Amino acid sequence: MSGSLRPTGVPSMNRRSFASSVVAVALAVLTPLAGCTGAKRIPGTEIRDTPDARAIVAVIDSYRQAAERRDAAGVLALVSESYFDDAGTADPSDDIDYLQLKQRLPEHFRKLSAVRLNIGVREIEVKGERAIANVFYDGHYRVSTASGEASKSTSDVSQMHFVREFGTWKIVSGL
Q: Which range, of 46-50, 96-100, 119-123, 145-149, averages the lowest pLDDT?
């Protein structure tokens, strides 16, 4: 007998076709199970549902609410006194620390007559007492200018950095 042996009832196919078929069947069966790792997600996100992630999302939402109210004290309550942001540049003239933020924030909010801020949290990475949240924000506001009020909007992807202080997550950079 020449050729290859095959069980009765199995259609003739070459080894490559058979292997491809097995892989296709395996993928069809296993792909739906890949997402079933048992890891819960925060509803409406792909963020792993942990106490730290929930606490950080809550701080971000509290920040959003305070910013919409133009409440400088409310924002500062969420910020660490070790806050420092270099605005992503090497130029030290745009750096801001906690004391500067405390001074500038009320002044900034006084210029605004309306704020609507949407923040989408895309990812949270917690490492010990520090965390980073990758966020997308979309802000709309009216600002007083020399020629009157002007409507403005801004959208961007950004990172907010956090530090745990006395059991509470505080913003340490990224406003």
A: 145-149
| Residue entry with tokens 């042996």 | 5
Phi, psi torsion values for 2, nearest 5 degrees: -110, 165
What is the model's pLDDT at position 148? 85
Residue 41: inside a domain: no
User: What total of structural domains would you count in the chain?
Assistant: 1
In a domain, 30, yes or no: no
Alpha carbon of residue 21 to chain centroid: 40
For residue 154, the Cα-to-chain-centroid distance in whole angstroms is 17
pLDDT tens-digit map of 141-158: 999 888 888 999 999 999
- The residue to which tokens 């490492």 are assigned: 127
> Please, which residues have CB within 8 angstroms of residue 36's CB and are 6 or more apart in sequence?
none
- 146 φ/ψ angles, rounded to the nearest 5 degrees: -60, -30
- Domain around 140: 51-173
CATH of the domain at 69: 3.10.450.50
Q: Number of H helices and number of E strands within the chain?
A: 4, 6
Q: Does residue 26 lie within any of the structural domains?
A: no
In-domain check, residue 134? yes
